[in-house]
Every structure is written in C-alpha cells, then in structure tokens.
Amino acid sequence: MTTMTIAKAINEGLRTALTDHPKSLLMGEDIGALGGVYRVTDGLIGEFGPDRVVDTPLAESGIIGTAIGLALRGYTPVCEIQFDGFVFPGFNQITTQLAKIHSRSNGNLSVPVVIRIPYGGGIGSIEHHSESPEALFAHTAGLRIITPSNPHDAYWMIQQAVQCQDPVIVFEPKRRYWLKGEVDVEAPGAAGDPFKAHVLRTGTDATIVAYGPLVPVALAAANAAEEDGHSLEVIDLRSISPIDFDTVTASVQKTGRLIVAHEAPTFGGIGGEIAARISERAFHSLEAPVIRVGGFHMPYPVAKVEEDYLPDIDRILEALDRALSY
Amino acid sequence: MGTHLPSTEFDGTAVDDQREADAEAVMGEPPAPMVQLLGPDGKLGFDPVFTDYARKLTPEVLRGLYADMAAIRRFDVEATALQRQGQLALWVPLTGQEAAQIGSGRASQPQDYIFPTYREHGVALTRNVDLAELLRQFRGVSNGGWNPKDTNFHLYTLVLAAQTLHAVGYAMGIQRDQKLAATAAGTGNPAAEPAAAVIAYFGDGASSEGDVHESMVFASSYNAPVVFFCQNNHWAISVPTEVQTKVPLSNRAKGYGFPGIRVDGNDVIAVHAVTEWALEHARQGKGPVLIEAFTYRVGAHTTADDPTKYRQAAEEDAWKAKDPLARLEKYLRSEGMADQEFFAKVKADGDELAAYVRRTTHDLETPDIRTAFANTYAEAHPLVAEELAWFEEYSAGFAGEEPAANQARQAVTAQASPKAGH
Predict the structure, then answer these.
(1) Which residue among A25, A136, B154, B258 is least enclosed by CB atoms within 10 Å?
(2) B5 falls in which pLDDT band (50, 70, 90)?
(3) Which residue, among B278, B374, B375, B267, has the nearest Cα to B44 in the 3D structure?
(4) Quick one: pLDDT at residue B2?
(5) Strands lying side by side in the sheet with A198-201
(6) Residue B417: pLDDT band by 50, 70, 90 thresholds?
(7) Which residue has the higher pLDDT, B307 or B417?
(8) Residue B186 banded pLDDT, cuts 50, 70, 90
C-alpha cells in the first residue's frame, strides 16, 4: 500500500499503462514539458519521449479526430481535454465518429480511444472550468464513461480504460485531485471491474448514490445522519455508462429509499435515469419517490456563488428528510 | 436561378478573368497555374515536373485508366436507376469526377490507406471494393458495407471533413510504426513493411469545415505522411465555390507550410502524375501535400437534389466539353493505343458490371437488428444485454402472428416517412 493523491495515482496509472502497452500514447494540450495544467502527466514526457506524450495544437476536435485515426492504425491514444467546458469542439468527433465506428463497421473496426476530462466545480475558477457534462455523453451509445472518487480507483481505472476495446471517457473529479488515499499498486482487489458500483458504507434507512467529487460529500452526510439516528447506505457509482443497476437495486430493496446526488443539473441527468430505472426495478420496495440532489437548470454560476449551486451535506440531508417524510 | 456562370476561375486559360485578378490582388501574386497534361482536345502537353511521371504510364495502363473511368460511369448510371426504382434510399452520383477519382486511386499503392468522403465510388473501384457491397449503405442494409482492413479503403464518412482528421491520425500512426520497426531492426528484427502514406479525400464544400483546418494544422505540426485530395466539383449542393473561397483552394496549403497543387481534375494523366508525386513526397517523410482537383459535378449532389434550381445549363454544357473520358479516348485513338474493339469491349464490360450490380442489389440481405445490438460495443455491455433480452421476449410474443405484426409495422413506418428522402 502506498499513500498518494488522485492526481499522482492517475500519473502512476498512466506510467504503468505506457510501460505495459507499447502502442499506447498520451495526447493533449500542455501535457508534455508542463505536465498538464493539473500536472497529471508530470514527468512522463521525460520517460517516454515526445512521440508517446504528445503536446498537440490547441484544437479539441483535432485531438479526438487524430486519436481516432491512430486507433484505426492499432494505437491506443489517451487524450487529455484540459477542462470539462472545452470538450465541445471535440463533441462532434466523439459522438458522430468515435462512438459509432465499431457499430458502423459491423464490428470490423475498434477504436479504443481514452478521453480524460477533469470535471466539476468547487475550485473557484472562471467560466467553462467547472462543468459536469457527463449526461451528454452517457446519452450516446458506443461510449463508456467512468469516474473515480479515490486514488486506488483512479490508479486502476485509468489502466482499465486503456485496456478496454471500446472508447472510454474518464471524468476526473478535479477538486479531489489532491485527495490522498491508500493505493495498492500490486492488485486492484475490489476495483477489478471498472463498471461495477461499490457500496462504501452499509445502512438500513436510505441509500445515497453519488459519484466522482460528491462521494466524500455523501459519506460525510451519512456520518451526520448517523448522529441523528439515521442509517444510510452509500454507493459510489464509479461507472456512469453502463450503470451498475444491480447493485443499486439490491440496496434499495433493502433500504426502501434512494437519493441520487451529482453536481450536474438534475434535469435530463444521470439521477433522472437512475430514478426511472429503479422505479421500474424496485417499485414495490420504494417507501418514497427517488429524490435527486444536483445542480440547477442554469449555466454553471460564477465562482463567488458556486457554493449555493453545488450539492453539499445539508442539501443531501434535506433530501433525506423529504425521503423519510413519506 | 443562380447567377453562377460557366467557370474559368483561376484555371490559367482565361487571363482576363476578373476572379483571377481579384485573387491576385488578395494574394499579392498570381495564382499558380493549373497542372494539365491532357487537354480537352486529346493532345498531350508538357510539364517540367509531371511529364516525367506521365511517361511512366504505358499504353496498357492508359487503357486501364480509361476502362476504369468507363466502368464507374456505367455503375453510376446504374445506381441512379436503382434509386429511381426504389431499390436504393439515396444515391450520390460521381459523373464528371471519374478522372479525379480513378487517376488518384490508381496512383496509390496497396499499403497506402484511403479515407473517402461518400462520393468516392471511383476510388473504391481502384481499391478492389466490391461495388455491389458499396451499395449496402445506400440500400439501408448497412452503415458500412465492406471491411476496410481488406482493402485499406476506409468506410464512407457522411459528417463532412471528419475523416480528414482520422487520416492525419492514421498517418501519425504510420510514422510511429516506422520508428518501432527501425528500433526492431536495430535489435536484429528488420522491418518488412514498405513505406506507406494516407490520402484524405474531401470536397470544396467540406473545405469550409473546421476539421479540414485542424487536420492541416496537425499534419503540418507533425509532418504527417498524408495527401489531402480536394475534389473541387464547384458545387456544395447549391452553393458555388466562390462562396467558400476567394483564392484557389490549393493556395491554402501555403498558409500551413506545405505544397499545394492545382491539377485539372478531368485530366486523368495529370491527376495520376500529381498524386504519385505527392504520395512519394509523403512516403519519403517530406510531409503533407494538398492537391486540388479542378473538376465538375455534372449531375446532382444526390438523387434528392435538383440542380436546375440553382445553376445554368450553359455551365453544365461548358464542362461537358471538358469530359474526362472523351479526351482520353481521343488521345488513345490518335496515338493508335486503342481500337474500336477495345472500346466495344469496355462498353460490354460496363454493361456486365451493371447487370451484376442490379442482380446483387436485389439480393443484398437485410440484417437482423440483433447484429446492431451485437456491434454497439466491442466488449460485453449489461444495458445492451438487458435490452436485447427484452426484445427477444417481446418478439417471441408475436411468434404465431408475425406476418400480420410485420404488416402493421410496415404500414406505420410508411406513414411516418417524410415525402422527400434525405
């Protein structure tokens, strides 16, 4: 076991992936000498050289589009998008090309491109630097979307993404990059399947599903609720597409109540999808409607008021009160 | 009716062309002359660089180029007819662009990889794609139709210019392959693969897409072995080239720092020569080249289009006088390289190809939607599995009454279809 931050864990995971897979390479803006704006790729260009840690021109469509071409030639590119709000120039390449090539080639071609996107708010930054666009990608068949919440998962999930034959988007919780935790670099253990949700804390009164940056918030809310005599089960979803509905369903069948929390706006979001599926799968177990806690239907607000926008412990506890009131 | 007139823009033959003067004013120098070896009169001219390439074309090769152009034109007629008969959902005709496509495709080597748009049926022929399979996409039985790994001819891409970036990335992969092979050779494991290059096809319309710009920036940044082959067929559906650009498209290469060549796209000999030069340039590690093949879309953009609404018959007639097949036929006859028997055989072969395509199109198998479930992901996916299981159960419920259910479903589908395809 080694203690490291999420950022360092991804760095180590990328180092291992580059070592294990000679045809993998990193691409992105400022990822070479600078080591990325969050230093996630720090030091890698020195070890692997500029052909495998590629500083690209500032063009997101260009990054994704050329990564697709490299994948067609047998390479596994890992693209870094600098910030969530800057992925959209590459959205066309991701949704119309990357997601569909395996299908439209009748399975003859695979494009195992990995796209890393630091996402979410809470860092006091300016416009376009704090968004959570995961639902826009989850709606597109052909993509897989995962998001680690702790260093151990981060270390293994980035490697699992590189090994996957499908395109994988890794949403990295940027405000947790400096969160420290134990990493077992010898074996993934429970992190062996990146598409499986993890029950982080067992409880009996209600289930909270969260992912990425809100997992620590959900755990803190569960601690606070315990002081009030409520036993909460906390699930780290880990994979946004596919979603491990079996784990969520089993939990709700036990607790009878479900709260889903994410930073992204609730309207048209992942929480809505989970609410719908769980109402289909566990209708008779539900003691209350599924309650969503998330961002509002507005562009991500200015940094000085983002605390009013982002779900926090109190927002989750308020949702719990509502769930328990039925 | 548009006001677009028979175009001689920047083709080097009309010195008083106002657009040529305008372009010169913009660029500070006259546009580079267009490379032409075989004129509409069927006479071979001279070019200080490309004549040497043209001389390598034996009479047999020249006859082959003619036969290819005639075959793909006959195929185009047949596919258009199949669409009119309701056998294809849509067709994208290429007539007028045979020389640009056959000349460039035949200049490529088997190890080169080709990224077409959706109109490169002539290039497909040169890469040995089964033309009946090519129709699968237009019949609505596949979104692909052939395995690009068999032919190094990628699937058609309908989102304009997206494939130009794929081409550059693929070329970046070739560069890395060469380095890996060189490393292996240093350890006693010599490289077996010949040097390869990539061709990215696109049109004058797509030249306005941002992806073309980004692809040229990336290609230039990494000196990628890619040839950008722009067929300027003068019409982006109803919008003429002069709306897309104030200077010859080939001149844009200068801004990216690599060579740009404008070639007479109806001159198969010049197209072959220029493309061969550009591919050599790329394979030798000298970087990208932009070729603008100056040609004309004689027919409609697709079978859902009506060019009489936006362009004049006089323009079409002027371009028909520059026909790529007619000029090569004149040359072959005048040089005694081909006789009546040859042209008769070409015609018979074309009719045979048309019959084959007609016959095979009717037989193209409708896929089972289960293949769409199977091909969405490369690896197992629980949501796909769940939805497939539901579909199986749902379908099983219709087991005894399938014909009626199908009829009802077809009736609903027909009602919901828009009147104009595409």
Answers:
(1) A136
(2) very low
(3) B267
(4) 38
(5) A198-201, A232-236, A206-210, A258-265, A291-295
(6) very low
(7) B307
(8) confident
Q: Which two tokens stand for residue B352?
A: 């045979």
Query: Quick one: CA dihedral A77, A80, A84, A88, positive or negative?
Result: negative
Distances (CA, A) of A228 to A145, A208, A223: 35, 16, 9
Does the annotation mark A129 as catalytic? yes
User: Shortest CB distance from B218 goes to which of A62, A93, A142?
Assistant: A62
Task: Report which of A228, A184, A186, A237 is spatially closest to residue A208, judged by C-alpha positions.
Answer: A237
Residue in A65, A69, A142 nearest the CB of B214: A65
- ipTM over 0.95? The verdict is yes
Range B341-362 average pLDDT: 97
- pLDDT recorded at residue B10: 47
How far apart are alpha carbons A74 and A88 in whole angstroms?
26
Residues of B in contact with A242 (CB under 8 A): 381-383
- Nearest by CB: A108 against B147, B170, B215: B147
Contact B173 A93 (CB under 8 A): no
- A177-223 confidence digits (pLDDT tens): 999 999 999 999 999 999 999 999 999 999 999 999 999 999 999 99
Contacts 24+ apart (CB under 8 A), B186-189: none
Contact B167 A69 (CB under 8 A): yes
Q: Which contacts qualify for B358-364: CB closer than 8 Å, 24 or more apart?
A: B358/B78, B358/B82, B360/B132, B360/B135, B361/B82, B361/B87, B361/B88, B361/B132, B361/B135, B361/B139, B362/B87, B364/B132, B364/B135, B364/B136, B364/B139, B364/B141
Q: DSSP code of B249?
A: G
Q: A142 contacts in B (CB within 8 Å)?
A: 376-377
From the candidates B301, B311, B327, B331, give the one annotated as an active-site residue: B301
Please, what is the angle between helix A6-20 and helix A151-163, to 10°? 30
CATH number of B18-363: 3.40.50.970
CA atoms within 13 A on the CB side of A304: 0
Q: Is residue B141 a contact partner of residue B134, using CB atoms and an 8 Å limit? A: no
- Concatenate the DSSP letters of all residues of B168-232 into one string: HHHHHHHHHHHHHHHHHHHTT----SPP--EEEEEETTGGGSHHHHHHHHHHHHHT--EEEEEEE
